[in-house]
């Protein structure tokens, strides 16, 4: 804590107003720095305007449809899904309205904190080899001017990767940022790419009643996620009628005027009404004059940073998706805060990825934290583990949940919890106790002694811990 009356004035320029940039700006303002944030599209960045927030809002609408689909099983009779229609314009308007409102909230917060928010673009200027860095700022509709900054934070995010033979046209061939301009639901959506983005949209459109074909380049969907979890979710997708083409690559997509024709790597052709291209993202680092300034950029154009967000050039930091460290909003925000704390001489702990929890918002959801099955199987981390299906859980039975499980990993000798996976509705809310256990070095014994609500899905987390205790005694 600083003593009363102590203040620092420091010219900080932040390029990019997503979570990496705006959270950093708030920390800088709190520390009395003179801070300018330059954002091309709107406060909140792509996270709030086009990526994370809109997709989760769309998924919230799809969950309402899922509720209608299951009501008969609970003895609730309605006209069934026949009487339920999706007003695509209303759904998408809501998505865009909430995104803009969130962006406006962030703008207000930044202004109130004293951040100078510039709507425009910025890049590095001339390297004068002095103690400050020149940043060139071009406000929308204005003249370019230069600012000398003691600290620069690059937080420019990433953009959907484009396949040259399947360029999004905003009409029938779409990237995930163009989906919300559709005025009708697709009749048959072909999703190319089964990473987290592809899986989330495939799941949400399927729930909306859309016919979905998922083109998956690997043997299973979400190849970077826990294999048991990804296979459980793939099984649910198939049971609900999704067509999944495994080990298939989208080679080209053609807009035929009335639909799309997708040619796969093995020259098979599939037809649908629309195609969603979800084949990853590329960092927004090409237009920042980084090479001229000597800022090191690694494979794929990601800015190279250390665990306190420093680039190789003193005074220049980077945070978020432009660094490729772990493309999550939560990680971007922490990298940004760490950069400012470090730059302003505050006590700062280097970024720790060990306790970052992540969630895939499919139905059911998939949440993970800590060491993974791959780490254990490859012998990188010695661990004991248990995988407990939710089918035995009383609350799951009441809610008619058949798919899902809790998996826990702990140290063999001490029982210290080191990782976990939850596949369940709202797994994003259920992963927290495991995250807290890892963060605080708790053991399965301590977790098992925690009294949980009965009946509750979280009861299965304590139950999994109990099973690992029993295992220890054998
Ligand atoms: C479909 C989708 C869903 C996602 N869902 C989740 C989720 O549920 N949870 C989660 O944690 N993460 C999610 N993510 C990831 C998350 O959106 C990103 O990790 C996060 O946006 C990264 O924040 P950032 O600050 O690095 O960049 P961004 O949010 O991309 O913001 C960067 C901003 O910088 C601006 N910019 C770029 N260049 C310049 C320049 N030269 N001058 C001025 N401004 C510039 C850009 O216009 C952009 O607005 C999702 C991603 C996608 C694609
Ligand atoms: N809920 C969340 O937190 C959330 C949601 C979406 C994205 N994200 C973040 O964004 C990151 C990137 O995810 P993503 O899914 O956008 O990208 P990704 O790179 O993880 O997945 C893209 C997939 O497309 C495949 N692919 C590439 N070319 C293809 C082709 N021609 N045909 C078929 N498949 C092809 C790749 O093999 C890969 O599996 C994630 O790791 C995650 O951190 C997070």
UniProtKB/TrEMBL annotation:
InterPro entries: FAD/NAD-bd_sf, FAD/NAD-binding_dom, FAD/NAD-linked_Rdtase_dimer_sf, Pyr_nuc-diS_OxRdtase, Pyr_nucl-diS_OxRdtase_dimer. Binds 1 FAD per subunit. One of its GO terms (molecular function) is NAD(P)H dehydrogenase (quinone) activity. Keywords: FAD, Flavoprotein, NAD, Nucleotide-binding, Oxidoreductase. FAD binds at residues 56, 321. The keyword Cell cycle does not apply. NAD(+) binds at residues 193-200, 280. PANTHER family: MERCURIC REDUCTASE, NAD(P)H DEHYDROGENASE (QUINONE). This is Dihydrolipoamide dehydrogenase.
């Amino acid at each position: 804590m600083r003593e009363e009356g102590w203040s620092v004035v420091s010219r900080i320029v932040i390029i990019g107003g997503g979570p990496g940039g705006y959270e950093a700006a708030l920390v800088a303002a709190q520390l009395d720095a003179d801070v300018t944030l330059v954002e091309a599209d709107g406060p909140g960045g792509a996270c709030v305007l086009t990526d994370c927030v809109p997709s989760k809002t769309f998924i919230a609408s799809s969950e309402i449809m899922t509720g209608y689909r299951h009501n008969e099983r609970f003895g609730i009779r309605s006209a069934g899904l026949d009487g339920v229609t999706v007003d695509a314009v209303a759904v998408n308007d809501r998505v865009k309205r909430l995104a803009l409102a969130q962006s406006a909230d962030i703008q207000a917060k930044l202004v109130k904190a004293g951040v100078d928010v510039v709507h425009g673009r910025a890049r590095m200027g001339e390297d004068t080899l002095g103690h400050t860095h020149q940043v060139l700022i071009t406000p929308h509709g204005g003249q370019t001017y230069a600012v000398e900054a003691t600290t620069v934070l690059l937080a420019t995010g990433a953009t959907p990767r484009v396949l040259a033979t399947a360029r999004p046209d905003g009409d029938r061939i779409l990237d995930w940022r163009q989906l919300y301009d559709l005025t009708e639901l697709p009749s048959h959506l072909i999703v190319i790419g089964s990473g987290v983005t592809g899986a989330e949209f495939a799941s949400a459109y399927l729930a909306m009643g859309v016919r979905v074909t998922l083109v998956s380049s690997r043997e299973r969907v979400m190849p970077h996620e826990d294999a048991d979890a990804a296979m459980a979710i793939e099984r649910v997708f198939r049971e609900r009628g999704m067509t999944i083409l495994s080990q298939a690559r989208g080679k080209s997509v053609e807009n035929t005027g009335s639909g799309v024709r997708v040619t796969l790597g093995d020259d098979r052709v599939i037809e649908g009404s629309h195609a969603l291209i979800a084949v990853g993202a590329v960092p927004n680092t090409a237009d920042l004059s980084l090479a001229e300034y000597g800022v090191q950029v690694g494979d794929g154009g990601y800015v190279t940073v250390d665990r306190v967000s420093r680039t190789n050039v003193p005074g220049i930091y980077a945070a978020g998706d432009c660094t490729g460290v772990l493309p999550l909003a939560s990680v971007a925000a922490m990298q940004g805060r760490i950069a400012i704390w470090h730059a302003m001489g505050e006590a700062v702990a280097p970024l720790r990825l060990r306790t970052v929890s992540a969630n895939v918002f499919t139905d059911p959801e998939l949440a993970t934290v800590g060491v993974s099955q791959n780490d254990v199987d490859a012998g990188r981390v010695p661990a004991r583990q248990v995988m407990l299906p939710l089918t035995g859980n009383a609350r799951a039975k009441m809610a008619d949940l058949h798919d899902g499980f809790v998996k826990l990993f702990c140290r063999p000798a001490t029982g210290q919890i080191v990782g976990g996976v939850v596949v369940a509705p709202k797994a994003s809310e259920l992963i927290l106790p495991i995250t807290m256990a890892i963060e605080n070095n708790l053991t399965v014994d301590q977790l098992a002694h925690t009294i949980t609500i009965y009946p509750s899905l979280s009861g299965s987390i304590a139950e999994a811990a109990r099973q690992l205790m029993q295992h220890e005694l054998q």
